[in-house]
Amino acid sequence: MSINNLEYNTERDKLIIPEYGRHLQKMIDQAVEIEDREERNKVAKAIIAVMGNLQPHLRDVPDFQHKLWDQLFIMSDFKLDVEAPYPILTKEKLEERPEPLEYPQNFPKYRYYGNNIKRMIDVAISWEEGDLKTALTYTIANHMKKCYLNWNKDTVDDQAIFNHLLELSDGKIDLRNSSEDLSTSTDLLRGKKKNYRGGSGKKNYRSGGNNRGKKRY
Fold first, then answer.
1. Coil, strand, or helix at residue 216?
2. Segment Disordered: which positions (predicted)?
3. pTM higher than 0.70, yes or no?
């Protein structure tokens, strides 16, 4: 070969997906030029088989074949007119901007509760009134109390937690006049297990201080 006929990569067209190499790109370009549709379909399937052998690590990826067909259309610059076993990827679909992600809601005043608390509160609001919603609400309040104690001090009044819950729920969860008590600070900090009274099957939660006959959650 004459030195004048040498091709330099800088003079060649840029590869769309470089991992497959220039020879496969040429195969795809030639397939686009095939006039007979049936022959084009056969060549496209042969190219897919070659692509699969060149990318064995993709075999564990869900929808492996679908990914290969999408890459085939991308490398043909969406000019390859063939039948595919999957919806044909279009340039418009590829360039379509994804929906913006929802950023976590931040509450600087109550950062110690964490963003998951707000998600749990939103779930509780969406539930119908009943025992399950009540149990979830008090579970959230207890977790808020534990978070508060971990980051602030050794004791906290339940009413403070109820006020925070009211604010974080936009006024939709109001336990301020509740006859129930949350778990004690001691139990939350030491991770003590809840105790249950036998016999009648009613729940009784051990707590420190004056219980005043209230149920504890």
1. strand
2. 184-217
3. no
